[in-house]
Amino acid sequence: MKKSILFSTLILMCYINIYSQEMDKKQFYSSILLEKTFMLNDWFGNKSHHDVLESASIIDIAYRLDWRLYNGFGIWGSYGIGILGKAEAIPSDLNLFGEINLNDYYIKDLEKTDKSEGSKRISIRGMIGVFYKYKHDKWIVTPYLGMGFQALTSPELKYTLKGKGNNDSYDIRYRWFDRYNEEDKIKSLGFLYLQVKGERKISSKISLSLGVSYSQYLTRPNFTAAMVDHYDQSLIRNIREKGNFVNSLGVSLGVGFW
Amino acid sequence: MKIKIYLSIALVFMACMATSCPEKEQDVYLVGIELMNFDNAGESMTESNESVSKDAFVIGVRYKVCYTDDREGKYPEYYAQSSYGDPKIIINVSSNPQIICNNDFDEDHPAGSDVTKLFKFGTDKDVEQDLLLILTTSPAPGTYSFKVVYNCSDNTVIEKSTNPVTLF
Predict the structure, then answer these.
(1) Which chain A residue has its CA at the smallest distance from B124's CA?
(2) pLDDT tens per residue, range B73-83
(3) ipTM over 0.90
(4) Interatomic CA distance for residues B89 and B26, integer angstroms
């Protein structure tokens, strides 16, 4: 049974390859794709942590350039802008340190980087990779494999607690991503991208396409909460929670220019 | 004509390079200190020469320094935190000061004893002090004065006592 499946697959590949040899000699193909992706899992198991991050379910419009190098094989790159899924605002009175009762403290120097509740943000998404075009008559099937980056807001909440009537004072900081630079408010996430696109030429210059994609994010969020002494900056308590490597499915519609 | 353009570009480049001189850190000596009593009961620290809660007492230390190459009075002393002379490295101070209680603090700490361990050392950007000595153990209510002693690496001792303050 297995042998017959393998045999049929080989015959199919040969058939497609023969037709691929007949592909016209055009080297560059441009297309514009509108893609909607759906997250298959959450950033964090903890819902309140997950909700603060912008969703990887996005609507993205991108320009893609395919450069055919040899037969149907080539490299591609795309650059687009997407509308990120909504995120919740960080509650200003967030307190994950059970030993602290906020009513016993003055809250000072509060700084927050997050999404205002319900609003959406435009984000940049870029990709680069390889493809192989199978062409038969007016139909072209192209598997794409690539790597990309997606920019997300890197949320942060920090404030200083000053004890009422005493010398206690703590600096509290919550972050959803590690930051290499204190001022980094945007985080670029790398992801692996796999797409199969079916395309039909409707004229000698234009084609329409429908694609299905899968994205596997290579960076995961890392929630940290730190409580340090305000005066000598000694660490008092630290909470860490690793997030998930998110993956998503996407559906795209496109117009190709030949 | 071309050579003039190249020369102009080179001149502009050289001028830019000449203006980006890195700041040089200066070596200075600690020559004196000033102490202040702070009331830390509220949202922010305030200077206080009256009574202060025994749970919210802080001593502020300001450093007076002078240049390395002249300790004979040629150059005046100045506050380490002032913009004049910044940035700086105080080379004759390598450790935190010793704190002596001038009055009986508690049963274990009679007058003249070392109470350094009852204080925490730190800073706060909201107050213009080089070092804060934060009291972490509450004494019995009473009037107190503390002596802050720097045993400097150049074999000099710099010390000063706080104004008496009532801790309630």
Answers:
(1) A231
(2) 556 677 776 55
(3) no
(4) 6
